[in-house]
Amino acid sequence: MMRTMQRRFFNVIAFASAVLVPLVAMAADDSKVYDGRLEGYPRSVTLELGGTALSWMLLVGLGILCLGALFKSAKRSHLD
Fold first, then answer.
1. Terminal CA-CA length for the chain
2. 15, 27, 32, 68: which one has the fewest Cβ atoms less than 10 Å from its Cβ?
3. Buried b (16+ CB within 10 A) or exposed e, 42-68
4. DSSP secondary-structure letter at 38?
5. Cα separation, 78 vs 70, whole angstroms
6. Per-residue pLDDT reduced to its tens digit, 1-57
7. pTM for the complete prediction?
8. For residues 3 and 9, what is the distance between their CA atoms, to the nearest angstrom?
9. Residues 6+ apart with CB under 8 A from 47
10. What are the extents of the domains in the chain?
11. Cα separation, 61 vs 68, whole angstroms
């Protein structure tokens, strides 16, 4: 009897954390997005849209790093 009550209690808690908590979080979401870089100016300012060059450079750099690890010798000692 006690085990079934504990199991039912944990099922209710799991349901509440999986379904009800995200619903409350979505309901509290503000529709206006603030950008801290634009606050404090006397008139309205906008930022130019950035490019994707930095993301591509990071992707290429990480790719080179990963490919470099692939071509390491498997027979090397741990003292290298």
1. 63
2. 32
3. eeeeeeeeeeeeeeeeeeeeeeeeeee
4. G
5. 16
6. 678 888 888 888 888 888 877 777 776 656 666 677 777 778 877 777 888 899 999
7. 0.37
8. 10
9. 35, 37, 38
10. 1-29
11. 11
